[in-house]
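Section 5: illustrative case.
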């Protein structure tokens, strides 16, 4: 998806913040988290319990829902998480 805007400072800040979200999700926010401690996500990925695609799709869906933008439906199979917690 191409950006309609120019390479503005605000756009750069948003993209940097998005990069920070990944670091926080995978590491910093896990420190002291008893439910999902640091390293658990990586271990689950390596064990095949979850895929990067599932994580990205969930984040994407939540972000689209939050800003109120509808996407074209994408063909995909429902995961166990989707069945337990439909979004």
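Designed sequence:
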């Amino acid at each position: 998806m191409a950006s309609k805007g120019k390479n503005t400072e605000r756009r750069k800040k948003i993209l940097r913040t998005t990069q920070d979200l990944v670091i926080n999700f995978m590491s910093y926010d896990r420190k002291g988290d008893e439910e999902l401690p640091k390293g658990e996500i990586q271990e689950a990925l390596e064990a095949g319990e979850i895929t990067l695609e599932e994580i990205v799709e969930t984040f994407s869906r939540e972000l689209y829902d939050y800003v109120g933008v509808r996407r074209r439906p994408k063909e995909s199979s429902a995961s166990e998480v989707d069945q337990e917690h439909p979004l």
